[in-house]
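Handoff note, outgoing to incoming analyst
You'll be picking up this chain. Sequence as last confirmed:
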Amino acid sequence: MLRTLPGSAPTAPSFTRVSGLAALGFAFLIVAGNVILVPAGLPRTGAGIGEVDGFFRAHHDLVGIGSALTPVAWALATVFGAGVVRVLWHSERERGSAWALVGFAGLLSQNAAFAGVIAIRLALASTAADGLGADTGLWALHDALFTLNGAFLALALAGLSLGGLRAGLVRPWHGRWGLVSAALLLASAVLTPLAIDRLGPLGLLGLAGWLMWVVWIVVYGIVLIRAEPGRPTAR
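Most recent structure output, in case you need it:
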């Protein structure tokens, strides 16, 4: 959307606003992907190979549809992280800290880890379409990457929450929300060896942290859309 002032040429939206919109787009796409696959019976972490094989044989086309827009989601996450770094950069330099960079590194790392998750799902869907059974080792690798990704999400949440709190960009409740989500996701990642062995309640840690992460990034996107370009708002 272009903004026009009287007597002036149209100007492009600020990068801060664009990064806020990117956060909202990212949240929408990751939720949409889950809305497509979870009701269809996407196996949970620790599911048996029989359940996994049955799902990919029955829904290999649906897996492709659910995965199609994930590259766009990763691009949007990168734009969001870069926008937060831009807003917080001056404040962080003055304080001699780099929490925003820690959070940005977490976002980039989760992009890479989840690319591995999606690649394994597409590989299982492709082999299922050819009549081949799901590979036990490949699914175990999927579960391990999926759960360990919580560590990278925790870095993103902690870094961008602490940076935003110290600069006055985010409200205290929002920052604390992000830190609680980070703690849940990190705990889930630490317990990966137990979570991938069998179905159980440990997966609920990661699920709760992930749901909080989605709310956190939506609110952060709204903050960036409303923020004055290039400068945090003291609270």
